[in-house]
Amino acid sequence: MPSDYVDFVLDALADWHAVASRRMFGGYGLYRQGVMFALIVDDTLYFKVDDSNRKDFEQAGAGPFVYHAKGKPVSLSYWQVPPDVFEDSEQLGAWAQKAYQAGLRAQASKPVSKAKKATQTQPFDPEDA
Fold first, then answer.
1. Which of 18, 25, 104, 127 is the residue whose CA sits 20 to 30 A from 69?
2. Cβ neighbour number for residue 38 with a 10 Å cutoff
3. C-alpha distances out from residue 100 to 10, 103, 125, Å
4. What is the pLDDT of residues 22-69, one digit of tens each?
5. Domain 4-108 sits in which CATH superfamily?
6. Strand partners for 76
7. CA torsion, points 57, 16, 37, 49, in degrees to nearest 10?
């Protein structure tokens, strides 16, 4: 069951698009049409960032989500959503859209596993018959 904060974020994003949450790694991933575009950890919202929207976050003074693994900091491509963006539903939707687009690009750049390739339907070619 999602936390009150997750419900609050889902409600805030409802004007932009239908969003689903899934528990993961002690937090929640937020998804639109199967694409993860946001992360919630410790009641903090982070959006997916790539070269197309990183400057927005940098100009707002936001930073990436960082955790420690084996004593070393690891930063992810999810950056904290600035409070003033979160408080403006139109701006929140615009930033969410950019994060969703970054998620689509990240998903498209991932190689397809052998298992997925084996289960994908191939078009019928009469010459193969």
1. 104
2. 24
3. 14, 5, 36
4. 999 889 999 999 999 999 999 999 999 999 999 999 999 999 999 999
5. YgaC/TfoX-N like chaperone (3.30.1460.30)
6. none
7. -20
